[in-house]
Write a structure and sequence with these properties.
Elements: E1 2-7, E2 9-10, E3 13-14, E4 24-33, E5 41-50, E6 53-68, E7 73-83, E8 86-98
């Protein structure tokens, strides 16, 4: 789905609205992330087109519905990043605002 994503936390700490970063425009896709000694995690990947390539701009692990907004929705999950050579996992909220029409790929039941 084409959308903008605004990350509402920094290192697990909620940001004041005035401190929100610029939205990232890209495409989100759901996938799975295998774990060594744990069940596979659901992951929402954010991809950003750059010319003829696409770069990863984030991953939200085990996303859960958090809230609905006037023009989008908020998902809660875990983001991982390296800090001083150590993998750190922090709670994150993504404000997702769809761009363009949303179309279901599944037929609707009557």
């Amino acid at each position: 789905m084409r959308c903008t994503v605004t990350k509402l936390r920094r290192n697990g700490v909620a940001l004041a609205r005035k401190d929100w970063p610029e939205p990232i425009e890209g495409v989100i896709q759901q996938g799975d992330q295998p774990q060594r000694d744990k069940p596979t995690s659901r992951v929402l990947f954010l991809h950003v087109p750059q010319g003829t390539t696409v770069r990863g701009a984030g991953a939200l692990i085990e996303p859960q519905w958090h809230a609905t907004t006037e023009d989008g929705f908020i998902l809660r999950g875990i983001e991982r990043h390296h800090e001083d050579g150590i993998m750190v996992a922090c709670e994150q909220l993504w404000l997702i605002r769809p761009l363009g029409p949303l179309r279901s790929t599944l037929p609707l039941e009557p």
